[in-house]
User: Fold these one by one.
Assistant:
Number 1:
Amino acid sequence: MDFRVEKDSLGEVKVPSNAYWGAQTQRALENFPISGQKAHPAFVWASAVVKKAACITNRDLALLAIDQAGAIITACDEIIAGGLRDQFMIDIFQAGAGTSHNMNCNEVIANRANEILGHPRGSYRSIHPNDTVNMSQSTNDFIPTAIRIASLKLSYELVFKLEAFHAALNEKGVEFDPVVKSARTHLQDAVPIRLGQEFSGYAQSVLRHIEWIKAAAGELTEIGLGGSAAGTGLNCHPDYRAGVVNNLSKLTGFEIRPARNYFEAMQSMAPFLKLSGALRNFAQDLSRIANDFRLMASGPKTGLAELLLPPRQPGSSIMPGKVNPVIPEMTNMVCFAVFGNDDAILWAAQAGQLDLNVMMPLIAARLPESLTILTNTLDV
């Protein structure tokens, strides 16, 4: 493999010659060979959107030259469109606060932008990762903003699937309304009930969770971008905060609002925990519904046999003809993973100290994962 030599504050680093990342990303790749898990695609997308919004704002404030801004915007657009994703290879378990991910973004965008301007990779005289791409930003306000934007995007995707799930349960409730069965309490026969009535309960539960998830996601529209390193706005133009919020709103279509308190926006991860808690709450009801489906589909000769689930795959390697409730089983496991992710986010959120929470990379990994696996579960 061919290499180029780049320098950072610690000295020289050999970087693959075809890589768009630079010295600090290379160090992170070597320092953190932990899980093999990389940044969530939505987090990479959101990171590029935030960098683009910052660049547009800096350009409009005459802090960046037109050609510099144009090249950076083009590089960001390529990432937003799904390009250069193989350049974001740092493990999710990385340096605190997400400095490694921020520098990964800065270096990839800088090298691609320089290339657009006709300069070789690793030549930062025109566009520098820190001074140009990261202008008016810090890891400490960039990372929580990128997590917010990624989570908003994924939350809307989940809500769309939840609404379809709610409609499907309602439809089945109508279809099953003539079916009379025994209600069961304590797993013992109780009183007559219509199967459609049970499904109406499932549908109402999902509707309630849609409302709760929407409310929790709405908290994430308040961002602390422009707080810089500790919330003070150090090295930011006085008009930067208002401008970047406006530009981020235009780019995402979300109604982004400036933080009511920029210090709190860096210190507290509570909004992420609120959304994660809403997901956990939905997951426990979804798991309960899946359990009911498994029970009602048990049999076919010695179980309840009240539901006939569509056969999706053979159920046994030794018992011919056996078919298992694989979708509800998978759903249970997804819900258990969401419970675990919520615990991880809780521990990460409470680990903040003084003016910063350095455990944000764990939140950036686990919250988007919970949103994604729940969305995908509702799509099968």
Number 2:
Amino acid sequence: MDPFGNSINDTLKKAESWVERTGNRLHVRTREWVLRDLLLIEENKPLDSLLIKESERLIRRQTYIRSAQITASHVRQDTPSQADSVDVKVRVLDSWSVIPEASFSTSSTRLGLRERNFLGTGHDLRALFTRHFDLGENAYDVRYTVRNFKNTYIGSTVGYSSYLDNSFYKGINIERVFYSPFTRWAGGVYADQQLRKDSLATEALELHYDRLRYNTYDLWAGHSFQVFKGDSENDRTTNLITSARYLRVNFKESPNIEVDPDRFFSSETFLLGSIGIASRQFEQDRYIFNYGIIEDVPVGTVYGITGGYQRKNHRDRLYMGGRVAYGNYFNWGFLSTNIEAGLFFHKKEPEQTTLAFQANYFTNLIDIGPYWKMRQFIKPQVVWGENRFNTIGDRVTLNEHGSILGVYGADFHELNNMGIPGFRSRIFGTQKFLLTLQTQFYSPWNMWGFRLNPFLKYSVAMLGDNDQRISNSRVYNAIGAGFIISNDYLVFDVFQLSFSFYPRMPGNGNDVFRINAFNTADFGFQDFEFGKPRTVLYQ
């Protein structure tokens, strides 16, 4: 159905205003074959209620879909062969998927277009152009994504980016993840070529802008086996998963020895394998990260181990790591936890030890009067490192988006929302503690589909290293208030407008006030997928 004026539950509701009718005329509906390719059920096969439920979730998770509903009913028996037949009806409400981007200043112009349902095919197209007048340079960012090729759930992305400092990225990723607990095989092929210019620091903290030029080749494959033979949802969604990975990074240009004495930025070959048990289910809820629509909350358990062999700088190292995760609803709210530990061994000596812990908690929905609702969110994070290399690339930071230095392959999406929102400073450590509290209100305010939901946020963080442990380090705070802005009909990232106060931000002074306006990553759900082998993220 077109996005404006229609309802997934009310078949009689139609677009009435001129604006709604015009928007629907301009909208290209999602093609029927796109929706068929998302279904896990097949014609002339026994009806499986769990696959119906999972198909509905997979349709709903598409960014260009606002709501989905799948129902089954008995077929009218015109012939004896139809006695055991059912009709499956899929109702889908689209979102408006074309979003322009534009910003202007005295020094630069930025223009772009994002189409998340290109010609109704479900493909994602992004094109962005930036012109900097003072530098006389142009920047480009173009990406095209096919999410699901002919019901295989094999997705592919081709991207090219050139930046104002003449660095660039060229990459392609073809991958099928364990998108569902019913998925039996997964794998991917990724390749990129990058030229980056990053500011690295010596021991005296003198800034150096070095060129990092490298090619990456990343291949992996995995298989999932159902552990139990029962027919219950828990039995059918508990799997033993095995996977293997080959990663090759070939550096063409590296920093000099003064900046990178341990040759952290150098070519490597890394072989990884993992085995684990994952139990994944999804509970439906509302008023978490969206307003009123169904949200699928992952619950489950993961137990997994990872081993590997790395060849780098003419040194052989073994890797060992493990992960335990659990999440579920309780009488007092929802809680999910994730604990990971990993380390390398070189000649029986431990190197680059990492311990990471994260928890996500939110309360049950609280009604405030007849129209308002609220939840309290709590998110603690701890990253602990020992025997780290002497380079800025092997350090943690409190900056919101962390750093992708030393991270290779198609894993960059995992590096969002790693620090204090809006915090930017060149301070680093080997240990990090971060606690974020957010009080989120859900208001009745609605203008042309735009929702303004107020929030209050407080973050406290500390960095430590071998010379100064976290318990003795400085405390960094951030206090914020603002609005989470979303839209019921349009496909765009959630937008945040907030006022933040930072008592201390090294390099920017004390008592710093900032007005932040940016696309925001929410607290997020911890998925219980166990797939592509990797080391513990140290960010």
Number 3:
Amino acid sequence: MSVFLKCKDNTVSNEEFELVFHDQYDMLITRPQPKKDKLGGYYKSENYISHTDSNKTLIDKVYQLVKKHTIKGKVNSINKYKRGGKQLLDIGCGTGEFLLSCKNDGWNVIGVEPNPDANALTVAKIGDENSIFKSLDDVISLHSNTKFDVITMWHVLEHVPNLEETVKNLSNLLTKNGVLLVAVPNFRSFDAVYYGEYWAAFDVPRHLWHFSRAAITDLFIKEGLKLSETRPMWFDSFYVSMLSETYKRGKSSFIRAFLIGFYSNCKGFFSNEVSSHIYFLKKVV
């Protein structure tokens, strides 16, 4: 595997990492990958916003506004799969807003969130500590007979240490004809190419894997999960570009970030290579 790019951890450590190209799956792999017992240390930052409800900075405010807006769309996306059953597993549920919205919409919800602070916030919102777990292994152990109609991973797959094992577990946890929704960044997008080593969605070493559309298709079909639909996440290009501007120039430039994000979306509209995608994968075996 050849080195595709070298980039720095701009959030916690300032350490440099390599992104190596895996040609079989058309994806990038972060190297070296932190050991499992060290990985949590790379999330210990006030700037890691998905583990908080912070609203301090402009970027925080944009993130929270977009999150609130997109949750409704996410819930609508899964509701068409609530026909026969309504068991939902959200892996990497963060501070619990999506999970709470699903619960309020009639879903029986279980969430996974390893970060202690975010986990506690989710428990407080859901009101049931027995529905929120620290790991997928805990869910498998304590709900061995439970199958889920829908499993969601909103920008989570890129974080999991054991990728192929996780894919296998996801398939096993789904009901027959169940649906998995996976949202991940796309390193083939224009904003990724434009910002290069400064592209915020590389987010090394927290992001261990960096996917293309082809990679998602090939990874999951091996475990009987077939891609049925792909949807763009239009807001991601703007938010990622705002962060990338800060990493590249040392200060945020809202106007430049907006223009890059807008141009990336325009190109992506025709090429289908947007900053992030939601993949709908249906179990076929």
Number 4:
Amino acid sequence: MKREITFKGQLYHLVGRSIEIDTSAPNFRVYTQSLEEKRLSDYKDKIKIITTFLSLDTSVCQTQVKEFNIGATKLSKDIVVLCISKDLPFAQKRFCAAENIEDVHVLSDYKYTSFGINYGVLIKKMNLLSRAVFIIDKSDIVRYIQQVDENAHLPNYSDVYDHLEHVINSPVKHISSTFPGTCKPCEEGVPPLNKAEVSSLLKQMKGWDLINGKKITKDFKFKDFIEAKYFIDLIAVIAEEQNHHPRILFDYNKLNITLWTHAAEGLTDNDFILAKAIDQLVS
């Protein structure tokens, strides 16, 4: 994914995980206009068109939501359209009522910036979501990504619906991966990975070192204290959602991150899942 966009000609940097087509879609937490939490799993067995935008206070973003609302009326019931921004749910509710937006789900990322971080569309300097469109199939595989280069412009709707046709014709895609998916709850007595399993997963990681066969660790260095603290904040959102938490040592602009699973007294898939997500933040 691209890490930069422009807005009215000015360059802005995007932060968050760098995701790719034909990979498992990350989970996320957003909120409805009635403050109900929604996650990717709430739209299971649906084809998801997810579009993000800066703010409903701009005419371009208003047009974007209206256009997808019109397009949604022509779609089958097994396709859902989610429109996500960091506008407060109350503002979204007023807009939807005023404009009769009834065929898409307008959702807010105001609380945790979860979608922005997990999908790499957070504009760092603005703390808003950039303009983008994702298509996620019924098996929760990312099938399409459109990042709008100039965020004062609208998405290419024709390209979205052309790719949607391909997904409709093949709504479930099985991918072969040697890497585990999302973290799973651990209980006391869960067995750790064996040496061969640890070795296989560690080969897929860059810069992570093995400690006594039971932990993995990696050092990160940033420009200054604020940048290092900001990176911790990004990790915290993902770690809390995965319910798996690293040990972080913080020294001015340097971080040391160590992962292991206490319940297993060693390494499990969860450690490598979170390590990969952390790496995606800086890729």
